[in-house]
């Protein structure tokens, strides 16, 4: 096979062709000894160094990244260094801050009189009428506890007996999450949390959101979507969506009855929760690819609604990013890959549940491993200039070939460049 | 002549008319027509014209045509197998399965023919659509048979035939006196594919040639909607040839297969227990058959369940990518269970299944791999009733042939043969390579064929393939695709080199397991105790010698015209001045008595030829012994052939 055909063939399988590096010029450093990372770096002919050495590329944990950027460390990066987090990624990934930012974003748009902030009255499940944003209603109603407790009670009174979900702000992988459907339960919990036996709980703030109790079920089971979004810059916003996301299924049949309220195998789709369940299957790991989901929906629900759903998901991602863009420290050394958790309800409306700044790179199944390998591979090819050496002076406009399985969500720089053209594209995609 | 033809048509029409009267749809159709006749649109004077016009308007016309179409396709099923030996093989295979099933059942202490107990029945009918929550201990179920076993049986088929040739590997299907198509004929059969016309699923996004559409896909959607609205089965079939968009597929498949959900079934699916109870009384007892149960194979292990549910469960736990559709499958499974348990089932389905599969064993077998066939359907139908109906017709029309031994031109045997012929004729180098590394080419693709690629292709592509199967009404696409895949992957296959672990000392092939150092040591100690003290060098030389060993025999090349052609081609490429190998007998004839003198005259060529550097080895000696050659020249010419083959071997 000659070079050209090789290139085509490798593109066919979703892998971006990497020209062989003659000299080993690039060094990498990583906090995570994950094989998907190391194998990808080594495939590019990079060599591993320690965090104190001269590195060009650092796949860091969020903590390391914050330390590096903190004033105390005094570390200054040069032009050939890149790191995989933005210093204040928590604006997006912490549950309370995300909600705060989105609320602020909506208010700002409303003040500007933007058509995006249009509001309309909707009838809730309980028969009450509420005012909601038409285009920006993609996060379930959420309050931060204990700060917003009074507002929550007010909202709760509007539709009593509804189910709410409590999540600790700073924890991940489904720890500390529980459902409540009575105000008394919440009160009881807060009393307990304040007792000296649980000092750690009292410090923590929680978010409480309306529980989406009508999720779309396939085979009677609840699932959520894990989509990967790569952001290379926030101002101008440049974001890419990875097309090979997956659905994570619960192992137990969905059941809204009160008795099942405490059964996390019914309600939480996190793999870290589900894999302890008795019915967990380690072969497929409760995962189905997004393409297959699309196929299923198109076959059973029709083409138009499916396309609307996927367009709505892109819309949701773009606007959640726009919401945090003004507050993000847009360091040009940084890029970040976010894991978006999205739940689809039975009217095929997507809801943003949470954003992870360091999505798991652990592979539970074979397919998982392939997917994550491709993910890392494609991330690298998008963020690196064509010559494969990290360089922050590069304009961060990758050529179409290097996108791999990523598709361009938004690039504000390109949008500005050819305004009339881009607007047409955008309206196609999001309307 | 014309009269005769007209007469024949007339006869067929009469027969059709008779048959239609027996069909279930006749009553409603008849009353519909009666209603039409009494409507004011029909005039007495021009009765025929106006009635036809009215029927067209009402869509009865298309209904009638579809009925005829589906009726024709259900006919011609009872053809006699011309090869009695195959029948024998088939019955033996069935017997084997029965035995295996029965022994498993006795182990499990369940009777397959037993009617469910009253409490069990009630439990099942209460929550039959929630069977995914049913938990059963599957550890006791063990495999009945795997695709491998079935292949084994197929491969021995030639043994049932009177004259298996010697000197040829036993595993080829070529001995079977079956007619299969050549690539040329296949090209004619699938003209759209041959011409490289734009197909959905291959190049969906290319610009459409029709005006007004952005892409091929949108054009196809538009056209498909019109076709679906028309609802005329042959038109839909034609449409499916180029692939159907996913959003219309469910409708189109149901229409082309004539899978209407009957009202009774819908009642049954509505879980109205009274209806079910009523039906129960009217069924009678279909449990006359001694064996019930449907073993299905999974990737590597086959589990036999007494009820479909168990199986589906184990299947879904093993099959990685389709698990989410469990629920649908479970309901489907439950439905089968109802059918075959014959207890709460709606009798429509049960009776049909019974009549369509004449023998019990068929029933056992038709279900054998049904899960593989059914799972893709879950991407199309949410509703179990619709799924069940479409799937059932699909299975009875196509997939069951993949699990039976028969001489049907689209049966699994013929498909295997077609695959072999295609590979041999169109990818001869691959074919040779397979033989050189001693792999039966059918083994590589058998699972694909047997499961119609289900579970081997991503669901999206699989559905496009099945579109085409429906469209062309032919399973011959499967071997064609298999060959195409191998051809596409040729480079990779050529790199594969299956080296068996062989002991250099005794030429014995050892198992993979013996690669463990301890076991190797053990072998050396037990079998070659005299060689224990030898140093590494000795074994390395042995290895070198072994690797230089030529692999192709003269006989093998000469006995097969294809190989001869290939050899000639190779000689041309190597700029040799000869093109074919001589058989030893020919050599003797050519040289007559002159060879000895020539040998002693000392032609330089012959000298160099007999140098040990060329690797005078076992093979040659064997040949000499066998054929009793005393002719030196023959040895030389043979050796030159071998030499070339060595080059050939390295090249391939």
Automatic annotation (TrEMBL), chain A:
InterPro entries: TTL/TTLL_fam (IPR004344). It is found in: Cytoplasm, Cytoskeleton, Cilium basal body. One of its GO terms (cellular component) is microtubule. The gene is Ttll1. Coiled coil: none annotated. Keywords: ATP-binding, Cell projection, Cilium, Cytoplasm, Cytoskeleton, Ligase, Microtubule, Nucleotide-binding. This is Polyglutamylase complex subunit TTLL1. It comes from the Eukaryota. One of its GO terms (molecular function) is tubulin binding. Part of the neuronal tubulin polyglutamylase complex which contains TPGS1, TPGS2, TTLL1, LRRC49 and NICN1. Interacts with PCM1, CSTPP1 and LRRC49. One of its GO terms (biological process) is microtubule cytoskeleton organization. Belongs to the tubulin polyglutamylase family. The lineage of its organism: Eukaryota, Metazoa, Ecdysozoa, Arthropoda, Hexapoda.
Automatic annotation (TrEMBL), chain B:
The lineage of its organism: Eukaryota, Metazoa, Ecdysozoa, Arthropoda, Hexapoda. This is TBC1 domain family member 19. Gene3D superfamilies: Ypt/Rab-GAP domain of gyp1p, domain 3 (1.10.472.80). Pfam families: RabGAP-TBC. InterPro entries: Rab-GAP-TBC_dom, Rab-GAP_TBC_sf, TBC1D19. The gene is TBC1D19. Residues 243-473 form the Rab-GAP TBC domain. It comes from Eumeta variegata (Bagworm moth). PROSITE patterns: TBC_RABGAP.
């Amino acid at each position: 096979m000659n070079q050209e055909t090789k290139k085509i063939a490798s593109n066919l399988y979703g892998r971006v062709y990497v020209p062989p590096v003659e000299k080993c010029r690039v060094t990498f450093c990583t906090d995570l000894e994950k094989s998907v990372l190391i194998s990808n770096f080594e495939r590019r002919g990079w060599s591993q160094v320690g965090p104190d050495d001269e590195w060009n590329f650092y796949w860091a944990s969020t903590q390391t990244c914050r330390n590096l950027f903190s004033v105390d460390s005094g570390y200054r990066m040069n032009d050939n260094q890149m790191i995989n987090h933005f210093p204040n990624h928590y604006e997006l990934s912490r549950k309370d801050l995300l909600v705060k930012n989105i609320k602020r974003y909506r208010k700002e748009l409303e003040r500007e009189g933007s058509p995006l902030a249009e509001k309309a009255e909707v009838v809730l499940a309980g028969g009450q009428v509420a005012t909601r944003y038409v285009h920006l209603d993609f996060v379930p109603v959420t309050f931060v506890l204990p700060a917003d407790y009074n507002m929550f009670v007010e909202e709760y009174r509007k539709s009593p007996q509804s189910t709410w979900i409590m999540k600790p702000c700073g924890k991940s992988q489904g720890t500390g999450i529980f459902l409540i459907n009575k105000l008394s339960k919440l009160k009881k919990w807060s009393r307990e949390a304040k007792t000296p036996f649980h000092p750690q709980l009292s410090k923590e703030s929680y978010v409480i959101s309306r529980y989406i109790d009508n999720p779309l079920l396939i085979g009677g089971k609840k699932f959520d979507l894990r989509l990967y979004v790569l952001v290379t810059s926030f101002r101008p916003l440049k974001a890419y969506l990875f097309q090979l996301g997956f659905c994570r299924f619960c192992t137990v049949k969905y059941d809204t009855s009160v008795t099942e309220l405490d059964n996390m195998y019914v309600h939480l789709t996190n793999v870290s929760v589900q894999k302890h369940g008795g019915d967990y299957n380690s072969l497929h790991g409760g995962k189905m690819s997004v393409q297959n989901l699309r196929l299923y929906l198109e076959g059973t629900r029709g083409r138009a609604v499916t396309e609307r759903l996927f367009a709505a998901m892109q819309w949701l991602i773009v606007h959640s990013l726009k919401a945090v863009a003004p507050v993000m420290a847009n360091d040009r050394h940084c890029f970040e890959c976010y894991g978006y958790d999205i739940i689809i309800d039975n009217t095929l409306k997507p809801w943003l549940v949470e954003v992870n700044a360091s999505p798991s790179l652990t592979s539970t199944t074979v397919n998982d491993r392939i997917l994550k390998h491709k993910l890392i591979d494609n991330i690298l090819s998008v963020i690196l200039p064509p010559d494969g050496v990290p360089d922050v002076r590069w304009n961060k406009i990758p050529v179409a070939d290097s996108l791999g399985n990523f598709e361009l969500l938004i690039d504000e720089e390109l949008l500005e460049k050819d305004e009339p053209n881009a607007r047409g594209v955008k309206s196609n995609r999001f309307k | 002549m014309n009269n005769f033809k007209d007469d024949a048509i007339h006869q067929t029409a009469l027969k059709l008319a008779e048959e239609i009267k027996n069909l279930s749809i006749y009553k409603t159709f008849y009353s519909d027509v009666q209603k039409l006749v009494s409507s004011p649109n029909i005039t007495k004077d021009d009765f025929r014209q106006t009635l036809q016009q009215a029927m067209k308007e009402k869509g009865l016309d298309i209904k009638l045509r579809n009925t005829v179409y589906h009726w024709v396709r259900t006919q011609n099923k009872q053809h006699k197998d011309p090869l009695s030996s195959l029948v024998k093989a088939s019955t033996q295979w069935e017997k084997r399965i029965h035995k295996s099933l029965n022994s498993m059942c006795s182990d499990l202490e369940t009777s397959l023919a037993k009617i469910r107990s009253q409490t069990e029945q009630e439990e099942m009918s209460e929550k039959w659509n929630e069977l995914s929550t049913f938990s059963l201990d599957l550890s006791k179920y063990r495999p009945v048979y795997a695709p491998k076993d079935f292949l084994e049986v197929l491969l021995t088929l030639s043994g049932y035939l009177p004259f298996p040739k010697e000197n040829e590997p036993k595993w080829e299907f070529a001995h079977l006196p079956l007619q299969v198509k050549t690539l040329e004929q296949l090209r004619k059969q699938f003209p759209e594919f041959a011409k490289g016309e734009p197909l959905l699923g291959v190049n969906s996004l290319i610009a459409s040639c029709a005006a007004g559409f952005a892409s091929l896909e949108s054009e196809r959607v538009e056209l498909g909607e019109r076709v679906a609205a028309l609802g005329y089965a042959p038109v839909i079939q034609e449409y499916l040839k180029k692939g159907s968009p996913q959003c219309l597929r469910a409708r189109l498949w149901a229409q082309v297969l004539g899978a209407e959900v009957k009202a009774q079934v819908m009642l049954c699916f509505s879980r109205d227990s009274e209806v079910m109870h009523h039906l129960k009384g009217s069924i009678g007892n279909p449990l006359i058959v001694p064996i019930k149960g449907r073993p299905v194979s999974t990737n590597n292990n086959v589990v036999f369940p007494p009820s479909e549910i168990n199986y589906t469960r184990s299947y879904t736990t093993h099959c990685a990518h389709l698990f989410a559709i469990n629920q649908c499958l479970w309901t489907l499974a439950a439905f089968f269970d109802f059918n075959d348990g014959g207890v709460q089932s709606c009798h429509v389905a049960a009776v049909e299944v019974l009549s369509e599969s004449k023998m019990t064993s068929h029933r056992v077998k038709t279900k054998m791999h049904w899960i593989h066939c059914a799972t893709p359907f879950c991407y199309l139908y949410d509703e179990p009733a619709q799924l069940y109906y479409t799937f059932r017709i699909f299975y009875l029309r196509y997939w069951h042939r993949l699990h039976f031994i028969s001489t049907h031109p689209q049966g699994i045997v013929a498909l295997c043969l077609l695959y072999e012929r295609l590979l041999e004729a169109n990818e001869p180098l691959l074919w040779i390579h397979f033989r050189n590394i001693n792999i039966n080419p059918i083994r590589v693709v058998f699972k694909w064929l047997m499961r119609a690629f289900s579970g081997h292709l991503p669901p999206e592509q699989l559905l496009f393939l099945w579109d085409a199967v429906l469209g062309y009404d032919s399973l011959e696409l499967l071997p064609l695709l298999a060959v195409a895949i191998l051809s596409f992957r040729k480079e990779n296959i050529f790199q594969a080199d299956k080296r068996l672990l062989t002991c250099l000392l005794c030429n014995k092939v050892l198992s993979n397991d013996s690669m463990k150092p301890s076991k190797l040591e053990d072998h050396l100690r037990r079998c070659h105790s005299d060689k224990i003290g030898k140093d590494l060098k000795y074994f390395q030389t042995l290895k070198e010698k072994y690797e230089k060993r030529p692999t192709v025999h003269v006989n093998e090349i000469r006995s097969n015209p294809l190989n001869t052609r290939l050899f000639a081609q190779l000689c041309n490429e190597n700029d040799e001045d000869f093109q074919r190998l001589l058989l030893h007998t020919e050599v003797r004839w050519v040289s007559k008595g002159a060879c000895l003198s020539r040998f002693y005259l000392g032609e330089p060529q012959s000298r160099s030829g007999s140098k040990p550097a060329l690797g005078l080895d076992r093979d040659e000696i064997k040949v000499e012994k066998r054929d009793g050659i005393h002719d030196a020249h023959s040895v030389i010419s043979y050796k030159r052939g071998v030499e070339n083959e060595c080059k050939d071997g390295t090249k391939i």
